[in-house]
Amino acid sequence: MSEQSNKPKSILKNKDTLPSTSTKQQTPDPREVAIKHARIIHSRREVEDQISDSIIELSKFPTTRDAPYNASNPAPADAESFQNLVRLYQPSDYDDLIEERNANGLCGYTLCPNPRSRMSGSGTFKLVNFGRKDFNIVPTRELEKWCSQKCAKRAMYVKVQLNETAAWERAGIASIQIDLFEDIDAAASDATKQLEKEVENSKIEALEKSAQNARDLALERGDSAENRKKSKRSIKLTIREKPVKAPAAPSLDVDGQTHLVTEGYKTTFDSKSETVSQEIKSTDVKETIPEE
């Protein structure tokens, strides 16, 4: 008995207390998994069917084609319907819409009531804007999708807003909105008008400020209204010509010896030599006179 009590106990659990490896984890019901996938596929197919139906519907737009509505000013109901239906489109879906409208003989832009253009000739490519800076060679098929370049720009503006993500992944996002090209033009024109108005107001304020500065400067100088009235009085002026006497011309030979000046140097003579020369000349004169 003592030997059994002194025997150490094992720290490992007994096999009876360990969980049974034979029990398998609970697996989901295959039927429920199949039903879940079927519902996902069905919802995706519904979204695709809605897009297909909307392509057929938009291929006949606009519903209102009377004046004053046109491509640049569509009817509000048509514009709203187009924006709501095309918001879940992929770019490929939008291309299908353009082809469907061309098949009906209409311009590729959904809100345009005009027929698409037909290019003359049988060439595959056409020269656009020949001789200009924006010259380009465009396939004839691309040019015949629209009635004008303006409608092509409107249609491409809508296309660049579309997303490549699948439509069923974006179906529940309400924040997705599609803008029209005319809406951007209107917003830009409003901003331009507001800017022009602010510039005009700043010009008026500058003129008023300069006028006030001129008035303040006039007051500092004492240029009041009464002084300005006095300054306007006419004064009679008489202009008389003053007689002017011409100055006498200076004498060029003051001392009578100008002929003695040579290159700025004046020749001088000694007085003694002059008297001797004069005596010699007088004796010579006496000798030459004959006696009577």
Automatic annotation (TrEMBL):
GO cellular component: cytoplasm; nucleus
Pfam annotation, one family: RPAP2_Rtr1
UniProt-annotated location(s): Nucleus
Region (Disordered): 1-34, 219-292
EC number(s) on file: 3.1.3.16
Reaction catalysis annotation: O-phospho-L-threonyl-[protein] + H2O = L-threonyl-[protein] + phosphate; O-phospho-L-seryl-[protein] + H2O = L-seryl-[protein] + phosphate
Coiled-coil regions listed: none
Ranges annotated as biased composition (Polar residues): 17-28, 268-280
GO molecular function list: RNA polymerase core enzyme binding; RNA polymerase II CTD heptapeptide repeat phosphatase activity; zinc ion binding
UniProt keyword list: Hydrolase, Metal-binding, Nucleus, Protein phosphatase, Zinc, Zinc-finger
Major location category of this protein: nucleus
Domain of life of the native organism: Eukaryota
Cross-referenced Gene3D superfamilies: 1.25.40.820
PANTHER family given in the database record: RNA POLYMERASE II SUBUNIT B1 CTD PHOSPHATASE RPAP2-RELATED
Similarity section: Belongs to the RPAP2 family.
Protein's recorded name: RNA polymerase II subunit B1 CTD phosphatase RPAP2 homolog
Organism of provenance: Xylaria hypoxylon
